């Protein structure tokens, strides 16, 4: 958003200090366009906050599980938005807070297209470390509850879609079928030359990365030659592969976002599970659904910047609260 406003001022050749009126007009216009811009741009990192509008319910979200269960029993199309907190209960680091560094590098500084272009060996070591960790983790009770709920409700003509920020593939491993991965997957690679995307669960992903990627602050970079890093298997290509994840500063897949928007428009119940609600555009999804008057329940260890927008908030580990919330309701006929 800040970049967008700067561009407006630059294009117009106007000094902000001398033209405060123009700046404020641009700000208002930007805010009016914000909802559509989030989807059009799909920027993973955005500093804008959702502001409370007149349509928002000003009452505090409640934690009445029996009330939520009644709403759940009547829902036909359920959207479940999940974040790193779900995977954290399986032992996958969130790469924020205490885990935001790998060696001496900030994780968010490694997960950029610029870093991959400058030092592909270092970035591949970082992602190899994350891949190997994810490959060895198991779905927890929250993952399993979501997958079981989806399978059970499908038999009743009801749908469950998982819209996830996680890139570890644990939802798939748990058995979930309808998963929209807005940030990509560690278990996929994309060729930087031909663009071919493929599922890739090899361990190690290439011989040169075997036993590499240790996170200790004193570990030196392996400095693997580019031609020894993962390469494309398509005939006549052999281009450099990269993890098929969304780096910071990159746009999200417009096809995935179109599917997400459709699910948001049709769901009649939404669960926001294990997400800090600070990474955009996903932080907007729950409030946008709530703006239609649809019940939205948040499941998290703590409140978040978006808690006030939701009808329900259930505090505690997702692996404890979610199985109860999604268990078979007495009214269900199987």
UniProtKB/TrEMBL annotation:
Family named by the database record: Belongs to the sirtuin family. Class III subfamily.
Needed co-factor(s): Zn(2+)
Lineage of the organism: Eukaryota, Metazoa, Chordata, Craniata, Vertebrata
This protein's name: NAD-dependent protein deacylase sirtuin-5, mitochondrial
A Pfam family assignment: SIR2
Single GO term (MF): protein-glutaryllysine deglutarylase activity
Note on how the cofactor is bound: Binds 1 zinc ion per subunit.
Domain named Deacetylase sirtuin-type: residues: 58-332
Annotated InterPro entries: DHS-like_NAD/FAD-binding_dom, NAD-dep_sirtuin_deacylases, Sirtuin, Sirtuin_cat_small_dom_sf, Sirtuin_class_III, Ssirtuin_cat_dom
Extent of the signal sequence: none
